[in-house]
Structures are given as C-alpha cells and as structure tokens.
Design goal:
Number of strands: 6
Number of domains: 3
Radius of gyration: 33 Å
Strand order of the largest sheet: 1-2-3
Helix content: 40-55%
Structural class: mainly alpha
CATH topology of the largest domain: hpI Integrase, Chain A
CATH superfamily of the largest domain: Intergrase catalytic core
Distance between the termini: 77 Å
Length: 381
C-alpha cells in the first residue's frame, strides 16, 4: 500500500482489497492545488491506522443468522451419537470425547454462545486459557483437536457450510521423547516380575515379546492365535481394524503354556491365578508394585515394554527391522507412527557396509546383478 499523486497534484492511496483495486483520495474538501508531502504523509498514516481497518471490518461478510446456524448441542450430539459410531469408534473413545465436548459447550453457554455462528477467536482463546489452568499442555492440545474434529464432521455432513475455527492456529505440544529399555534392563524387568508376581508374568512377557498393547493382550482369545504357524489374527481393540502378524518362538511358548493351564476358564488366553480376566488397571498396579518392591533402578510402566520392543527392533545394529515390517508387528495404521521409534544416530555401520559391498572384488561379490557376462549380439543377416 502506498500513496501517489494524480496529474493535478492531488494525492490518493492505491491498494487492493478482496482482489479489486481501490483508490482513496487523501485530499479533503477545501484543499485546492498542491498539498505538501508532510500533510500527505500524515493523512496517509491516519488512513493506515484508522481508515483501512475500518474498511476491512465493514467489508467482512455478515454472519449467518441464528435461525440458519445450528446449535452447538446439535453438532456435538451428531458427532458423538452418529458420526463416531459410523466410523467404528470404540465405546471407550466415545466416552472420552463426550465430556470434552460437553465441557466446551457449557463454557460457551456461560459466555452466551449457543450457536456455531457465534464462535470466534476470542471465545476459543478464552476457553484455551481456561482449560490450561488445570490441565497439561498435551491435554489442552487433545481438547482443541477434539473440538476441531467435531466441527469438521459437521461440515462433512453438511450441517454447517464452514467451520469457524478452520483458520485458527492453536498451540501444539511435541510428543515426549521415547526412553526405551536396554536388553539388559528388559531381562531384569521380566526377572523381577517373574519373582514378585508369577501369575502376572505371562501377560507381561507376552507384551514384551510381541509389542502388543495391554488392551489387546488381555483380550486375546484362543481362536485368534495359531500356535502351529506362530501367527495372530485378530481385531485390534484401539483402532478396530483386523491385524495379522507373526510372533516369536518364546512368545508362542508363553501362549501355549497359558492355554494348557488347568485352572483357565473361558476363551481368554491370559487370566490371573483365580481364572479371572485381567484388567488394564490391575496390570498397571501389579506391575508397578512388583518393580517398587524389588527397588528397580528406574521408573518403568507397562507401556514402556511396547516402546522398547519397537525401538530395539528398529535400531538393532546387527539386524534392524524394516519399517513396513515393524508397522505390521506394531499394528499401526500410519507408518509415520512407526517412524518415531527409529533413531538413526550413527550411520557409520551402514555406509561402511555399503562401501564394502561396492568395493568387494567381482569374484567375491554377492550374486547381485548379472550372474554371467552379457553375451554379444549377433549381426542381423
């Protein structure tokens, strides 16, 4: 934006707004002839500070009337009761999202905001500051993502034409750094659990040897595992998708021993000493209590066993697991989730191996490429 003069010396501002060129005169009524540059500069600064913001504010499209805009309650009810069940979302996930959206609706109601058209950046900033007082930054990001997903679902269902917070940028928090165990620490953890809680050891060993989620381990049934072929085929509890992945010989031996138990009742593979099914809270409590009783050196949770499995498989210097294969073992729907376990800190061994293969004599080289020398072509007759 800049100011110029016409042929008669009168100044004007030349700028573009909403794709159209506009010209605003800086000459006032009563100004005749040439106007000094200092006066033009003063009027130009006043236009930039006062006039232009007013024009932009008045040129914005009028908000949708309240009769045409749906209420927040109707949008939230559609997301929780219709959209998420159609996406095969787990009941636990729906139970997690519903209180978040209800808390958002109640806060908006306290600010006299009942409809989607009344949402603004100010309301979102105030709600973000409100929940930041009592919740961690990562939880705040999860809350904002839930509200955004709810409004996007309403746009997809044509309940609203556009989400009012689409252009807003909200604070995000990086995921905490994964701190896996070493091979020695993992062996010590399994030894402690085997000594302190023998009935808990099979399910913990299964999680450590397969990388399964605790929710999947405690719901594994006998018909989902093929002990002869050492394969598991089942529907995942978290993502609700079918997964088929191999297991190691040791993990297969753990499952076979549990299936052969005399006191096992029902179809579940892993049960406690009384034959009752495990719950996630009981596993977490018993596991933490066993490590605390043994005075283990560092704090370990049951989820660290899954992270350790993926990290050691991806970063094994002798035989690193390819990421697409690790994605199958971890049952990830997106390979970007698997990539966060890869820690390529030292690539010396890989470049040395590549250089060694390239510089190896032809007679000792691995049988890659042409096994024999290419034959000469015969001239056509």
């Amino acid at each position: 934006m800049r100011w110029r003069r016409k042929a008669d010396g009168r100044p004007f501002v030349d700028f573009v707004m909403h794709g159209k060129r506009k010209r605003i005169s800086l000459a006032m009524q009563g100004d005749d002839g040439y106007i000094s540059d200092s006066v033009c500069e003063k009027r130009f600064r006043h236009f930039v500070d006062v006039g232009y913001p007013t024009m932009v504010r008045e040129s914005r499209p009028m908000p949708v009337s309240e009769e045409d805009s749906p209420t927040l309650r109707s949008v939230i009810d559609y997301f929780v009761e219709t959209y998420m069940p159609n996406k095969n979302a787990a009941i636990k996930t729906r139970a997690k999202y519903a209180p978040i959206l209800e808390d958002f609706r109640e806060y908006c109601a306290s600010r006299n905001v009942a409809r989607v058209s009344q949402l603004s950046r100010r309301i979102m900033d105030e709600w973000t500051a409100h929940i930041s007082k009592s919740r961690k930054p990562k939880t705040v990001t999860s809350y904002i993502t839930t509200v955004r997903a709810c409004l996007n679902a309403a746009v997809e269902a044509e309940i609203i034409t556009e989400t009012p917070i689409r252009r807003y940028l909200f604070p995000t928090v990086d995921e905490p750094e994964i701190n896996p165990l070493t091979y020695a620490q993992l062996r010590d953890v399994l030894a402690v659990v085997r000594a302190e809680a023998p009935d808990l050891y099979p399910v913990v060993a299964w999680i450590a040897l397969t990388g399964n989620r605790p929710s999947d381990a405690i719901r594994l049934t006998e018909n989902q595992i093929d002990t002869a072929a050492r394969y598991v085929e089942r529907k995942q509890t978290k993502v609700r998708r079918l997964a088929r992945y191999p297991i190691s010989t040791d993990a297969n031996a753990v499952a076979v021993a549990e299936i052969a138990r005399d006191d096992r009742t029902g179809a579940l593979v892993f049960t406690d000493s009384r034959g009752l099914p495990w719950t996630e809270s009981r596993i977490y409590t018993r596991f933490t209590r066993a490590l605390r009783r043994a005075r283990f050196a560092r704090g370990v949770t049951i989820k660290d066993l899954r992270h350790t499995f993926a990290s050691l498989m991806a970063n094994d210097p002798a035989k690193p697991c390819p990421l697409p294969v690790l994605q199958i073992l971890m049952c990830h729907t997106d390979i970007r989730t698997t990539m966060k376990y890869c820690r390529p800190m030292d690539a010396t061994q890989y470049v040395d191996h590549f250089a060694g293969v390239v510089n190896e004599p032809l007679n000792k080289r691995a049988p890659f490429g042409h096994p024999v020398a290419p034959q000469k072509r015969h001239a056509r007759k």
